[in-house]
């Protein structure tokens, strides 16, 4: 069995496993990586870019090395290789947990329970929920679903297609490091710089594929393409911009604007300004679009790997 089929069968099994099981309540491999990365940080932390770069190299490099060693150990057995790829895919993607959290908030909003929705929002994103009304919470959820479709699913599949199990684990390690230290707080402004920049690079192809597929799978392909072209570059994130703009156009809603992180107010550009204000029912629409994009991404990545392998064989 060739590497292309191993990835195809394993990645499909991993996505199905995520759909059926979601993330484990305890003992998640990503959580274990986070604890290990925190331990490394306690040893290495200095208010300096170089020490932060070393932290990134040690943690991400270890994840890639672990994936390479595991893949090498089972390469003689196609069945074991498929199982390993499936397990790695399940461990690094998070589409089902994303959908569950988003829909739980959506149900609370539909029931008029804004306080419960506020209490659950930090499980999904880092926004300050207290100043948000129901529509503001719904907008935060839609934006988070859009961005995390790329970060939690599509980006991992892209790097899995490129690098197999090491690519899957490496991408999730980089993305996790960015979430841990890649923000611009006083502690991490310099130390987290390397993690943030590496995450921008690793996320670039997945974000563009997510934006393309959101346009293809959404209700308004032309609107998605128009919003992406007009507004993506205005976003402070080079990868969230295309994804959120394309989702906004595909759903016919307006994203962006004023938001608050950790007590810091940001005034972000509006994405798809011709769209209407996000309302509660758009949460479920965004989740359905995210699901369609995820499965289309699997098909694209499998096809691309087969084409590349066919040309190089």
Structural class: mainly alpha
Report how far apart the termini are. 14 Å
Strand content: 5-15%
Order of helices and strands: HHHHHHHHHHEEEH
Query: Which sequence of strands runs across the widest sheet?
Result: 2-1-3
Mean of residue pLDDT values: 93
Largest sheet: 3 strands, mixed
Describe the structure.
This protein is mostly helical and 313 residues long. It contains eleven helices and three strands, in the order ααααααααααβββα. The chain is globular and about 55 Å long.
List the helices and strands and how they pair.
Elements: H1 3-21, H2 29-44, H3 49-74, H4 78-92, H5 95-110, H6 114-120, H7 134-181, H8 193-217, H9 221-231, H10 240-251, E1 253-261, E2 264-271, E3 276-277, H11 281-312
Parallel strand pairs: 1-3
Antiparallel strand pairs: 1-2
């Amino acid at each position: 069995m060739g590497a292309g089929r191993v990835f195809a069968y394993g990645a499909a099994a991993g996505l199905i496993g995520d759909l059926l099981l979601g993330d484990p309540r305890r003992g998640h491999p990503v959580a274990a990586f986070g604890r290990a990365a925190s331990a490394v940080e306690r040893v290495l932390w200095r208010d300096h870019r170089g020490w932060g770069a070393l932290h990134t190299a040690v943690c991400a490099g270890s994840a890639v090395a672990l994936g390479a060693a595991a893949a090498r150990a089972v390469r003689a057995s196609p069945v074991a290789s498929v199982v390993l790829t499936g397990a790695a895919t399940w461990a690094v993607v998070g589409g089902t947990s994303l959908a569950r959290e988003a829909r739980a908030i959506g149900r609370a909003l539909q029931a008029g329970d804004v306080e419960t929705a506020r209490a659950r929002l930090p499980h999904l994103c880092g926004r300050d929920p207290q100043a948000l009304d129901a529509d503001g919470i719904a907008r935060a959820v839609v934006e988070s679903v859009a961005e995390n479709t790329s970060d939690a699913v599509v980006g991992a599949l892209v790097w899995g297609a490129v690098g197999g199990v090491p690519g899957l684990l490496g991408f999730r390690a980089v993305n996790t490091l960015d979430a841990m230290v890649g923000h611009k707080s006083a502690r991490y402004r310099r130390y987290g710089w390397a993690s943030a920049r590496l995450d921008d690079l690793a996320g670039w192809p997945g974000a563009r594929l997510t934006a393309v597929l959101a346009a293809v799978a959404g209700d308004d392909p032309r609107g998605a393409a128009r919003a992406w072209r007009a507004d993506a570059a205005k976003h402070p994130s080079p990868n969230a911009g295309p994804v959120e703009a394309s989702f906004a156009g595909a759903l016919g809603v307006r994203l962006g604007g004023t938001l608050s992180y950790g007590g810091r107010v940001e005034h972000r550009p509006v994405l798809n300004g011709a769209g209407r204000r996000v309302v509660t029912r758009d949460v479920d629409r965004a989740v359905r679009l995210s699901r369609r994009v995820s499965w289309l991404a699997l098909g694209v990545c499998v096809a691309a790997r087969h084409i590349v392998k066919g040309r190089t064989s």
